[in-house]
Structures are given as structure tokens and as C-alpha cells.
Amino acid sequence: MHGDLGRIDGDGFIHIVDRKKDLVISGSENIYPAEIEDTIHVAIISVPHERLGEVVCAAIQCAPSEGISMEEVAAFYEKNLSRYKRPGEIIFADVP
Questions:
Q1: What is the pLDDT along the chain (96 residues), one digit of tens a residue?
Q2: Does this model's pTM top 0.70?
Q3: What DSSP character marks residue 64?
Q4: Which of 6, 21, 70, 14 is nearest to 42 (CA)?
Q5: 19 forms bridges with which residues in the sheet?
Q6: Of 36, 46, 65, 93, which residue is most buried, by most CB within 10 angstroms?
Q7: Which of these, 33, 28, 35, lies nearest to 3 by C-alpha position?
Q8: End-to-end Cα, the chain, rounded Å
Q9: What SS3 state is found at 11?
């Protein structure tokens, strides 16, 4: 993860503990992860991108019984966020 601080525990799990910076610069756009996190409860991280430098990645935690799909998350972001703020990647993960 680009710009995030973490640690690896004794079992080899990665724990994100903080951000090295509170800004993702994607192309020439400034994106503040907290804005996106407030839209839907997710952890926003940046990941390297060959052309843009970095893009937003949304790590979403939900129970399997909730049955939310990538398409539903993408549709939510499309409706609620400016195009340049939308996550370039969406993953489902255990988010503390």
C-alpha cells in the first residue's frame, strides 16, 4: 500500500495502523481518503498506478450474508462521488 503505515503480526497478518499522508494524488487530482470513508464505511488506501502515480482503493468489510457486490459498491460511488474520487480498485477484506 502506497502511503500507508502498517505492521506485520506474529501470524503474518498485515495491520494498517495509520497513514503516512492524508492525500492521494491521482493524475493531477487531490483526493482526501476521509471524504470517501465518510460516504461508506470502508478503509481507503492508495495503490500505485503506472499512469496516474496512484489511485484510490476501497477495502470494504461486510459479512458474507450481506451479499453486497462489487457492482453495487461501484454504483453507490458513481452516484455519490465525483468521478476522480471514485476508487480505482475495490476489494473485500477484514477492515478494523
A1: 456 667 888 888 777 776 667 777 888 888 887 777 766 667 888 888 899 888 888 888 776 556 678 888 889 889 988 888 888 888 887 655
A2: no
A3: G
A4: 70
A5: 4
A6: 46
A7: 33
A8: 16
A9: coil
Domains of the chain in start order, with CATH, are 4-92 (3.30.300.30)
**What Cα–Cα distance (Å) separates residue 15 from each residue in 6, 53, 64?**
5, 24, 21
DSSP strand E in the chain: where?
4-8, 14-19, 24-26, 29-31, 43-49, 53-60, 89-92
Give the count of alpha carbons within 13 A of 34, CB side only: 5
Range 49-78 burial, b when 16+ CB lie within 10 A, else e: beeeebbbbbbbeeeeeeeeeeeebeeebe
Distances (CA, A) of 49 to 33, 53, 76, 82: 16, 5, 23, 19
Geometric angle at alpha carbon 44, from 96 and 31, rounded to 5°:
155
